Amino acid sequence: MAELLVIRHAQASFGSDDYDRLSALGHRQAERVGTYLREIGWTPDRLVTGTLARQRQTLASMGFDAEPETHPGLDEYDFHDLLNTRFAGVVPDPVRHDRKTHFRTLRETILDWQAGGVTGAAETWAAFAERVAAARTFATRTKARRVLVISSGGPIGQLVTSALDAPPAQMIALNLQVKNTSLTRFFFSVQAFLLHEFNATPHFASPAAADMVTFS
Predict the structure, then answer these.
(1) Cα separation of 8 and 149, whole Å?
(2) pLDDT number for residue 216
(3) Does 105 lie in the same domain as 14?
C-alpha cells in the first residue's frame, strides 16, 4: 500500500494581527522535522500543501525546494470568522489572547457549528467536511508511493475521524491535540484508507528538544 504522511504546519504567530506566518520557533520546528525525515530515509515522491502561507513556509523550512501541488481542502477552517460570527464581531479579549480561554471557546464553537449553529459563518460544517474529503481524494488518487502533505489541525482531525468512521464531534477532540509538525500517517490503496499513526513527534524525543513542542 502507498503511504500518506500528513504533517501539521509549524508554530504560527498566535495572537498577532497576521497569524498566517511561522514564528521563529516554527521555522526551527520545521527544520527539525525535515532533518528527521532525511535521517530515516523517508523521501516523498509527491508534495501537497493547502494554500495557507504557514503551510507552505513549513514545507520550505523543512528543506523541500520543489514546488508543491496545492488543494484548499487542506486549509484550516476560518476560526477567526467562526468566533467573530458567534460573538457578533466583538470577540472578547481573553478569547483572542489567552490560549486556555481561546481553545476552550473554540471547542464550544466548533461543536455548535457541527450541530448547525454559528449561522452566518462564511463556511458551513458540511462544506468544510466536503472539502477535506475532496483533499483526501486528491492526495490519494496517485501513482506516488510516498505522499507528503502539509496541512492544519482541523483537516488532520477530520481525516482521522473519517478514517475511523468516528462521530463528527471527535474531530475537535483530535484537532486540539495535534502538535505543530506532528506526523499523522495513513496507508492507502484504491479500496482502503487506514490510519497507522497519529500526532507523533519523534523529532522532539530528545530532552534537548522537549521544549520545542507546541500546539498552536
Answers:
(1) 8
(2) 84
(3) no
CATH number at residue 162: 3.40.50.1240
Report the C-alpha gap between 148 and 4 in whole angstroms: 6
- Here the cell at position 197 is 499513526
Please, are residues 168 and 161 in contact by the beta-carbon 8 Å criterion?
yes
Dist. CA 167–CA 35, nearest whole Å: 36
Domain check: are 130 and 189 in the same one? yes
CA angle (189, 191, 195) in 5-degree steps = 65
| pLDDT tens column, 41-70 | 999 999 999 999 999 999 999 999 889 999
Residue 34 and residue 8 share a domain: yes
183: Cα within 13 Å, side-chain hemisphere? 21
pLDDT of 145 above 80:
yes
- Torsion over CA: 56, 212, 156, 79 (sign): negative
The domain containing residue 111 runs over which residues?
78-122
Q: Which of 86, 103, 122 is the last residue of a domain?
A: 122
Q: What angle do CA 119, 124, 129 make, to 5 degrees?
A: 155
Residue 123 pLDDT exceeds 80? yes
Instruction: Assess whether 48 and 135 both reside in one domain.
Output: yes
Q: How many Cβ atoms sit within 10 Å of the Cβ of residue 26?
A: 23
